[in-house]
Amino acid sequence: MFRRKKAAAVLTAAAASAVMLFSTIGGIPAAADTYELPEVAVEQIEAQTKDISSCNVTLRSKNLFYSGRKKVPAVTVYDGSVKLVRNTDYKLTYSNNIEPGRAEVKVQGINNYSGSTTLNFNVRTVAVKQLTAEPSADSVMLTWTETHGADGYKVYQYNAEKRRYDLKTTISDPNARNFRVTGLKNNTAYIFRVKGFASAGTTNYPGAGKKVEVTTLAKADNTPVGQNGRLKVSGANIVNSRGEKFQIIGMSTHGLMWEDFSNITTEKSLKTLRDDWGVNTIRLAMYTEEWGGYTTGTEYAAQAKQKVITGVDNATKLGMYAVIDWHILSDGNPAKHQAQAVSFFTEMAKKYKNNENVIYEICNEPNGGVTWSGQIKPYAETVISAIRKQDPNAIIVVGTGTWSQDIHDVVNNRLTANNVVYTLHFYANTHTDWLRNRFTECYSKGLPILVSEFGTCDASGNGGFNASQTKTWISLLDSKMVGYINWSACGKNETASAFKPGTNLADIPAGESALTESGKLIRSLYRKRTGK
Question: How far apart are CA 76 and CA 400, in angstroms?
């Protein structure tokens, strides 16, 4: 086979000899003679180049990763065992070789080679192929497999509100295989995406990402509500969400509308009651007719209601139960302010219907001659109906006659509503065996009872501190798993108060340094009962 240059030389020689030859005689041209070119010369003209496509043309790499710059994979061309030379035997033209997708290189024969052939290659994004997520309560560990060609990784978190992925971090380490996303909410669904990227100068070019959906774990909740959930009434007892008997062990505020007394509902003080005393419930005593009470004017009503809300919200944060107490006292007959009670409890039930920790006490201590069948039960039916329209599940506490001592009047004339308990109040130095016997008899008949208020002294709240009778009462109630709430977590200068006058109720200290005799007794009994 001849090269192009040799074939050209043969053709030139033939032309020099001419296709037609003239002879001369004495300088005068004679007749011309015509000759055929030799056959070999014709073959040389027809076979002077070779088509490059018949050679062995290969790409060094058919997959390159996107970087924002032109990708020019090396091309090798062999003619048999002879390796051809670029720009001598062929030239290369690349196209579509910057953006991700299918690119090509055209190999064009030159000089001794003619024709062309086209090879394809891929400009690929750096793709993360496998992504897993391991959640905890407040974080997620993302782990991915090795991603060939990556110079680093970008981690994104889906923003549902804005319907987009937000960049969480850029990892400029090609060997990175995991990243922990922190600061997450417990028991919450999240979507994450991880993308590998290739670098070109100071610019990172992300590739195709991998998405993973994950839900963080429910936070280990050792609070009273976290461990017991929504309470309900079963038989003569309150039970937790698993149907196990649950005993309310609580403290009651004094009148919330009086500034000093409402300070006990701060998050700090409630936490001390919970953690140092073993208290699982705070009763929020909102007086109705006393000075500054809910029914004494719209300004007072708004103030009192806000203090209830503050107390409920702080108790909720701490996983404590909260009793919203419509604290009738001097008004005696609960029906006196029935319309306002309906309005108030409708608003509260609507607000807290999804809370597992809220309990409604609709009449603290009916008194002044009102009876269960005459005034209390009709009132309760009306208020309970209003609550149940908003909240079908919460426990409702209903007061009984004679400052909530006449539970015996209820035994054979109970309300038909579900999740209702009846109130018994005692003050240890005044209400002794006779009221304990009444309690025992009513409990034995299946009446669900809550001691939503008790004191360590006589019924006036001041004088007659009686540790022995208090312990006898608490022992009886514990034996039946019936709950109780002590009056009161305040610093008023009276026997029933748990704290010494002048105590900063907004930040009560742990231990006994700020406690009265009554406070020390109650803290000791509560700690023993709750294993503190």
Answer: 100
What angle (nearest 5°) sits at the alpha carbon of residue 155, between those of residues 151 and 159? 150
Q: Per-residue pLDDT for 494 more than 60?
A: yes
Q: Measured between alpha carbons, how far is 51 from 196 in angstroms, rounded to an integer? A: 43
Task: Report which residue type is found at 387.
Answer: I
Q: Which two tokens stand for residue 147?
A: 């991603």
CA distance 288 to 308: 13
pLDDT in tens, 457-483: 999 999 999 999 999 999 999 999 999
Segment 196-217 mean pLDDT: 84
Question: Is the pLDDT confidence value at 418 over 60?
Answer: yes
Percent of the chain with pLDDT over 70: 91
Residues classed as catalytic? 365, 453
Q: How far apart are CA 395 and CA 316, in angstroms?
A: 16
DSSP 8-state symbol, 151 = S
- Those residues with Cβ within 8 angstroms of residue 318's Cβ, 6 or more apart along the chain or in another chain: 223, 267, 270, 271, 274
Q: Is the separation of the CB atoms in 488 and 498 below 8 Å? A: yes
Task: Kindly report the average pLDDT of the chain as a whole number.
Answer: 90
* CB-based contacts of 466, cutoff 8 Å, min separation 6: 428, 429, 456, 457, 458
Question: How many Å separate Cα 38 from the centre of its chain?
Answer: 93
What pairs with residue 108 in β-bridges?
91, 116
Q: What is the pLDDT of residues 249-261, one digit of tens each?
A: 999 999 998 867 8
- Residues 96-131 have pLDDT tens digits of 998 877 899 999 999 999 999 999 998 877 788 899
Which two structure tokens, joined as six digits, stand for 89? 């035997």
Name 326's bridge partners: 286
Scored b (16 or more CB within 10 A) or e, 486-506 reads bbbbbbbebbbbbbeeebebe
- Cβ atoms 510, 272 nearer than 8 A: yes
d(CA 133, CA 192): 9
- C-alpha pair distances (Å), 517 with each of 128, 430, 466: 68, 18, 10
> Do the Cβ atoms of 391 and 356 come closer than 8 Å?
no
Residue 36's contacts (CB-CB under 8 Å, 6 or more residues apart) are none
Task: Decide: 382 and 342 in contact? Cβ < 8 Å.
Answer: yes
**Three-state SS letters, 347-404:** HHHHHHCCCCCEEEECCCCCCCCCCHHHHHHHHHHHHHHHHHHHCCCCCEEECCHHHH
